[in-house]
Write a structure and sequence with these properties.
The protein is α/β, with parallel strands linked by helices. The chain has helices spanning about 10-20, 40-50, 65-75, 95, 100-105, 130-135, 180-185, 200-210, 215-220, 230-240, 250-265, 275-295; strands spanning about 25-30, 55-60, 85, 115-125, 155-160, 165. It folds into two domains: about 10-165, P-loop containing nucleotide triphosphate hydrolases (Rossmann fold, 3-Layer(aba) Sandwich), CATH 3.40.50.300; about 195-290, Orthogonal Bundle (Conserved Hypothetical Protein Ylqf, Chain: A, domain 2). The radius of gyration is 20 Å and the shape is globular. Bound molecules: guanosine-5'-triphosphate and magnesium ion.
Amino acid sequence: MSIQWFPGHMTAAKKKAEEALETNDLVIEVLDARIPGSSSNPMIDAIRKERQRPCLKILNKSDLADPKITEDWLSYLNNMPQTKAISITAKSTNDIKKILPLCAKLAPHRNSSIKPLRMLIMGVPNVGKSTIINAIHHKKIAKVGNEPAVTKQQQRIILNGSMILTDTPGMMWPKISNDIDGYFLAACHTIGINAYDETETAIFLFNAIKDNYGDLMAKKFKIEKPFPKDEEFLQKLAKKRGFIVKGGHMDLYKAATTLLNDFRQGNIGAISLESPATREIMLKKFAKDQLDNSSQV
Ligand SMILES: Nc1nc2c(ncn2[C@@H]2O[C@H](COP(=O)(O)OP(=O)(O)OP(=O)(O)O)[C@@H](O)[C@H]2O)c(=O)[nH]1
Ligand SMILES: [Mg+2]
């Protein structure tokens, strides 16, 4: 099943972002460090490139991601034109301090009260945009929440005489063409819960992490390797935890949400779902499948 989520307020958000980019000097794109490729919204890239605005890519929630793979992403992204990339955790004051100097370097001509540096913070939902704004501003000025689509409108914050930061609502794009991106985004909690099936997403997540992070999973869930396959893993987890529904059946839904929540909170360990290398392989396979499908029609 493919996952799609583009609620009405995002159409308005897209239009407003396009307008705002006319009067902003650069984009701060916040990505989820566990999925820097899947959480990169192609619509944001297109709007930004149309206006030729430079971009600071922030790989946030790096406390939840595999540090070695995050390094690979930084090397990869820092090779892109008009782009700078850093990894942070929004909870670290030291990490937050790095953001504004990097923005200033990307648009050095905007550095005075007459020409203030105007930054638009964008990204898919729930990646920590508003948390970062509050941390930069040292004040809880933007609403934050552990669910996607908390921010519904742009909010402009004057930081000092020469810097202005605008928070924007998290944006998805109208069609997620690659199913893997949909599952990764849902697993990382950037998609509204009514738009995906938790059990299916948990099984997808299990398969995505069981080989590289099998030891962490075995330790967390006290299930020995080799793991049972797909749904059977959830059955086993439900049995271990005593998740039982009427009639003595295993509560697969509860096992699925347990796996998802433990992953989202970093309780299993620091886990990345994709690296630049695995993403390239995945995209090549996707392109080939598309071609094969179109030649069969
Ligand atoms: N573990 C971890 N959690 C974070 C980090 N940054 C933000 N969060 C959490 O992520 C959740 C979403 O944060 P928000 O700042 O509301 O995210 P947003 O991108 O503004 O979300 P929308 O407005 O819905 O698009 C909150 O529960 C934050 O506490 C981080 O670096 N690490
Ligand atoms: Mg927000």
